[in-house]
Amino acid sequence: MIVFDGFGITYPDAHGPTLHDVDLVVPEGELCLVVGRTGSGKSTLLRAVNGLVPHFTGGIMTGRVTVAGRDTRLHAPRDLADVVGVVGQDPRSGFVTDTVEEELAYGMESLGLPGDVMRRRVEETLDLLGLSDLRGRPVEQLSGGERQRVAIGSVLTVHPRVLVLDEPTSALDPPAAEEVLAALQRLVHDLGLTVLLAEHRLERVVQYADRVVHLPGDGRPLEVGTPADVLRHTPVAPPVVELGRVARWHPLPLSIRDARRHAGELRDRLLTAERPIVGRLPGGLVAEARGLSVRLGSILAVRDVDLDVHAGTITAVMGRNGAGKSTLLGTFVGLHQPFAGEVRVAGEDPAALRPRALVRTVGLVPQEPADLLYADTIAAECTRADEDAGTPAGTCWELLDRLVPGLDPATHPRDLSEGQRLGLVLAIVLTSRPPLLLLDEPTRGLDYRAKERLAAVLGELAEEGTAIVLATHDVELAAEVSDRTAVIADGEIVALGPTSEVVVGSPAFAPQVAKVLAPAPWLTVTAVAEALEVLP
Amino acid sequence: MREPRGRLPRQLHPGAWWLWALGLVAVASRTWNPLLLLLVIVVAGYVVAARRTDAPWARSYAVFLRLGLVVLTVRLVFQVVLGVPQGTTELFTLPSVALPDWAAGVSLGGPVTLESVVAAATDGLRLATILACIGAANALANPKRLLAAMPAALYEIGVAVVVSLSFAPALVGGVQRVRAARRLRGRPDRGVRSMVSVALPVLEDALERSLALAAAMDSRGYGRRAEVPRRTRRLTAVLTLGGLVGMCLGLYALLDAATSPLVGTLLLAVGVLASGIGLRLAGRRAVRSRYRPDPWAAPEHWTAAAGLVAAALVVVAGIVDPAGLSPSVVPLTAPPLPPLATVGVLVALLPAWLTPPPALRRPDPAPTAAAARPRPAPHPATEVDA
């Protein structure tokens, strides 16, 4: 269905080719998963399928790509619209109309399909993706999972034979991700659609994939094979696979179900093992919220929350999209005024602090780290950060060098990978040494390597006495680094306690290792690996 | 009694409402009679009250009315303070300021006469009436549906407008985000200087979003074209441009009371015909179709006709009885109610009954409240599997 034949692409102003000599055949009806580190060319590969690369992006292309027999060199993306449906990373930026129903019809209108066909297909698609209750809704008002399903629906109505998805679940909370993946699964099984999918959150998708394509990203040829074969040695692998590697299971388990079949013997062995002591010793009180409620327009986004944050601890805040996590963090830096109750950071009301004093009290890494960047080189960003914080010149650069070693100071922040950019923003925020650090969804777009580094950095900071609160969907990260977890729903804290206790019982928020080894409260592969090493 | 099929509740074609409103605008621009102008406002207001929905754009009507009031007030204030008085009925005298020679024709202060105030008020009322008519069209017709109903050849302009309309809220969101970010970097988040430095990241953000949108639209088939011979393309251009020029000249002649209305009508008709054919030909290049297009049926005909008949009757009334449409101000006379023009304006009231209602009227709450509540829809997944 999709054939890459010696495909390569060199973008203008790039030092070398982003991809070269790619030979890949994706047969009809297959769900093919593309994995690789950030910057390895996953998006480029996906966008080449419908000709956006190079028609839209520019660049020099070698080799050729054919989809359903059409050569992308001879067909512009719009002429491939009837065979390839593409859903981009942020579906919001791809919406053209303003209601769900019109959005579903848009592609068909462009192809000039007759009215009765359009009418029928819109209804079919509404049913297929479970969107019928949403048909008249403005697309702006949809939740993350709904938005993604509408985006998928909007390309499905033209009955493409290939569906290309770039990170469809990375911005979603676990339940919404399940929703989207269940819909995809159905499309592959019932309609025989060919799906090419890139995703960082392998733990969510790898069990559905027929084949995995691994882009090493350093010039080596790509590896193609069944998920179990490819993941045996790739540096990117979901925790369940890592656990399988540590426990030397064969074949490698890809899903919780597979792993639990192997896990009985491991559970027995671990019974005698000593569990590492988790939880750092909390220091003094750094920030507190007392009976805090925050109003956003006509809704109460945070309702009657009590939360203490102590020095040297890491607190994870989890919950659905829109549960009030970001609002809670925002209130700690004074972006929102409390509607009722109060918030104190180092004894001060953050909303009353002037910006200069604020940065020394609390730092927030927002959901879009790039918002904090405006200079055109890393060096300039660092200089400004030093000025803003009033620290000696070079403080920020030193921090950055520790977090992300080996960056070129003349690089434009936009050209950094997601992980590097996060490191830069973290360095800027930490320059003024705030006793409280807040991170909003820090793992969005990070691959497993970058996530590991982030976890290590956060651990070190906590050792040094910084209080950290992170709002996240990423249960694996929360299990890895946090001492405490707060689950927030509808603005209220519904569970608050040591991570191991809160997370283990929850179907949505338990990490994979906990699901495999339940009821034993193991959370991370690292802990299991260390325990196994000590065992005879 | 059963409702006839054409009266089932639905949205009227936005073009019909606009034609109707433009007819009323034409009426307002032909007359200086305050009674007729007030009648136009009442007629437009009644139709809006009868046929508008509770959609966001429908709320804009009040905004237009208020804007009209502002225009009227400004016009009056200017006349009182800056105007040269006409007539002799002096109301009061403002202290006047002697202006240098080069400002001849403008007087600051001085005597204020009843005649000039009435003339200014009528003038302001005309503008306010025109605004009210446009506001009525805006409240009755979904502006986006109107753009969608454009001929295929103009479709791309329509898309550009729609996209830019939906961009404005995103831009506001962007400004808020960047301002919050400035605060997080320890920079002042208020004041003029901070606004300036916010502009760049916001624009960058907007540019990036438009690129993403362009890519998405391209990959969804936007801008597909059918092959059309070169000669047709040239003919299209000539017809469209020529037609547009004709329309402009014709409209100008019609609105200008000094030119014979016959010339204006003729020019307008030729212009409309030529550009219509031009657009039709241009539409051959587009392969698009419309999802659930608004039908153009009897109610649309009636509505558009009501507006056009109103305009035509007032134009005729202006020829038959010029004094009725522009009653004399110096000397001041009470405005008459010319019968032909009044009937004309009242014709524009008919759409309030001739069009289908936009939604079913709410049934009596007490007995049917439970039935009216939407039942929970069965889960779609089970439906499909079955």
Low-confidence stretches of chain B: 364-386
Shape of chain A: globular
Name of the CATH homologous superfamily of the largest domain in chain A: P-loop containing nucleotide triphosphate hydrolases
- The low-pLDDT segments of chain A are none
Tally of individual domains of chain A: 2
SSE string of chain B, helices as H and strands as E: HHHEEHHHHHHHHHHHH
The CATH class of the largest domain in chain A is Alpha Beta
Global Rg of chain B: 27 Å
Number of strands of chain B: 2
Q: Largest contact between protein chains?
A: A-B, 72 and 48 residues
- Tally the helices of chain A: 20
Strand order of the largest sheet of chain A: 6-7-8-3-9-10
> What CATH architecture of the largest domain in chain A do you see?
3-Layer(aba) Sandwich
Q: Please tell me the overall pLDDT of chain B.
A: 81
Oligomeric description of these chains: heterodimer
Overall outline of chain B: globular
Major sheet of chain A, described briefly?
A: 6 strands, mixed
Question: Helix proportion of residues of chain A, in percent?
Answer: 25-40%
* Number of beta-strand segments of chain A: 19
N-to-C span of chain A: 52 Å
Please give a quick description of this structure.
Chain A is 37% helix and 22% strand.
